[in-house]
Design brief:
Chains A, B, C: One of its GO terms (biological process) is ammonium homeostasis. Chains A, B, C: Belongs to the ammonium transporter (TC 2.A.49) family. Rh subfamily. The structure is a homotrimer. By secondary structure, the first copy, chain A, is mainly α. Chain A contains twelve helices and no strands. The radius of gyration of chain A is 20 Å and the shape is globular. Chains in contact: A-B, A-C, B-C.
Amino acid sequence: MSSNYRNFRNSVPWLILFLEAVFIALFYFLFSDKDLSFVSYPDFQDVNHMMIFGFGFFLTFLKRYGFSSTGFNLLIIVLGVQCSALMELLSDFRLKMPQEDGLTKITKATVSVTAVVISTGAVLGKTNPVQLVLMTVVEMIFFHISKWINSIFLQVPDNSSMMHVHLFGAYFGLAVSSCCSEPSPRSEKNASTPKSDLLSMLGTLFLWVFWPSFNSVLSMGENWKVIYNTYIALAVSAVTAFTFSAMTTKDGKFRMAHIHSAVLAGGVTLSYTDHRIQYPWIAMILGLLASVITILGSSCLQRCLNPALKIHDSSGVHFTFGFPAVLGALAEVILIAVENE
Amino acid sequence: MSSNYRNFRNSVPWLILFLEAVFIALFYFLFSDKDLSFVSYPDFQDVNHMMIFGFGFFLTFLKRYGFSSTGFNLLIIVLGVQCSALMELLSDFRLKMPQEDGLTKITKATVSVTAVVISTGAVLGKTNPVQLVLMTVVEMIFFHISKWINSIFLQVPDNSSMMHVHLFGAYFGLAVSSCCSEPSPRSEKNASTPKSDLLSMLGTLFLWVFWPSFNSVLSMGENWKVIYNTYIALAVSAVTAFTFSAMTTKDGKFRMAHIHSAVLAGGVTLSYTDHRIQYPWIAMILGLLASVITILGSSCLQRCLNPALKIHDSSGVHFTFGFPAVLGALAEVILIAVENE
Amino acid sequence: MSSNYRNFRNSVPWLILFLEAVFIALFYFLFSDKDLSFVSYPDFQDVNHMMIFGFGFFLTFLKRYGFSSTGFNLLIIVLGVQCSALMELLSDFRLKMPQEDGLTKITKATVSVTAVVISTGAVLGKTNPVQLVLMTVVEMIFFHISKWINSIFLQVPDNSSMMHVHLFGAYFGLAVSSCCSEPSPRSEKNASTPKSDLLSMLGTLFLWVFWPSFNSVLSMGENWKVIYNTYIALAVSAVTAFTFSAMTTKDGKFRMAHIHSAVLAGGVTLSYTDHRIQYPWIAMILGLLASVITILGSSCLQRCLNPALKIHDSSGVHFTFGFPAVLGALAEVILIAVENE
């Protein structure tokens, strides 16, 4: 470890402390009060639970990251939530929109932070803590700019203006990852053990269980339809993941890595379109397609595309979150076109 | 592994894919829409959480089943939920009853799937994936027939017509288990390790925490009474489990296997009678009795009955779910008799 | 193991069974019914979840206590809840107050039991099961006396009369601990392993996620403000914990033990003042201060105070729960003084 890096490392706590002081100061000036919340507390609690446990364990699949992934995940989420709540306050302040109540603010902030957590999955094992903290702040700023473009120029309604969060997170992470130097592929850092695999499966299950809450938390009104569609798409995704995993392996056994990523594909795809789907069979077919492209994408990318483009994607966020989100965006366009005919 | 079995094994994905196609097609024809749900989303979420985590880890007590039990558990639940939702749709369609909304449908389906998951506990280690998938479909069909008999012939009100789910699951599982060949008792497949024991305890805790939600989710109206009665019965069961576990072992130490099964006994027993109990002391006494018969049953069965009847019950579903459910059914009969006097 | 101790040990089940019989008998005489609950079921479920999982795993950090800590935790909670519900019934009966409904009763009882669970953390590794069971009953009686003093003499409103539960638990535990003989510090009982550290982190995360529910469950009316303030204080605590942990260690790395205790400090501090705080920046500053005194306290206590006072505090409840609760009490006094000016 060079002395240069050591000095760099010692700056981490001061950097974070400085950020925290800025947050407190800005909250002092900007905050104002509203009373009623349209987000119910159990819904927020589900999303919070999913972020801390789901993504915390989803990323423990590398042997050396047991504690640090759950720990850093917490640090990134709490920093990101404060940062995102501030960006929201600033944009409301500039646009002279009415302020929202506290619970809605932190729920929206928690949903935005998903982007950072997904990006972290792509760069895990190649970045140091300082870089992760900086990435959190920078990514939150860019995400809010993209959300602002969505609202102002594309006229996306407010409750779905942040549903591109998986897409944004996956490709932002890949962009950052392609700038970092690739670790030597044989290094012990990339190894996984049965125990870390089990923890990772635990994370997947948390994400699977709470995904309907995530998709429905910001959808005012037609809550139950969103929940039902997301659940049924996730169920079909899970079935398809097991099926295709057994088909694409030579010995006909289920492979953990496939299941790990493909069971969630339906939920990611539905995040755009869930409030627009009238019949469950549409959600089921989207869930099936999402799961198939995730598994096919997983084997294609690792064999051909990634070596060609020199992208190193530690936990496969490209096919886990990127591909299904693109499919969801396409489905949204088609559904709007059909509706308008 | 014989080539015969290998061919058989290769048919798993095609079988599942065929099932999934049938589900999507039937959903296309049968589905119609209703708007208001009498099941609240947090209640459904609790039941879903309990199924995925509780039963997923409850069955990891065998060393070799860490991943496969949580994974298969997910596969069985999502297949079972779709299958059960279809059976429900079909029976509503034939009886020309008004359709229920989506959330109520999947909540009922999730409750029914408990039967399959409990049966899986009895046959774990003796069946291959194809058999498990087939068992899921067959058991769901039989369960809906039994539910239909309950509603039509026994005039059981709709909200408690599926509360025999533990009883059905336990004895269906034992019946299937007695048809399978018994594995050699010394095989490494039946070993447990401290780590798998801890995971299994985790599963028990999930089930314990969410059992009041499970019992109350379909009981319209008198929700809080059901929750209170179930909680207090579970509390007494837990105390009794520790007490009797220390009494029946020679060195006076608590034995994990006892606690693992007996803390849940009160919840199983109350699943029938919870809406009928007026005073908490009745629930407390039922919880105490349930826990006692589970622990006594556990030592009797393993010593005398199972070898005699040649039943091999991998995770003890007979005394964990079977006995307390029988006690619950008896208590229900007595309570109705007392009420009518 | 002396024969004396063995006889003593054999009395555990009879002691517990006797207690349980007393509980059932008293419930038979005292219980009466009310219908509406001001505690919503999802809120109770969150608190229950937090007690069973959060504290269950928070205490698994010692290698030898994997199963026994989660198991005993369950036993202590269910005994404590019944004991506390009875004390509540008795005091309502004597004061001729109107009775509360079942759900409110068990929610209040669950909140009180936190005191016992925190005390257990201080004496872990030095007590046998009989002592723990006796401590549970005695501590619940003393806690209800202290609560009664709060209500009658100090005129604390009913919904915050039990918010000194962390303070009470920490110092009661330390008092009991100073009476026990200290175990030899090199004994294997105090060792921790990476795996037990990860489980312990899991417990911390459960506590962190559900702390807003804990603080808000008994606060009638201004629910959302309490939730928002607690969340933001916990977020700042978590950031500060990471920062100061890196500052106080020589190599600039995060230390698990610090993070383990300091991320929760904000929640403990806010348990008194959460309904009185009007602006989020006050909550943020309290969260920051709480986290700082926890980390500083942790290094001071272990070096100077504990050896001097001959206190042995197994899991550091003094600085994890004691110090932040004292800070919270001070903040409450200051806020009331400012309001009255």
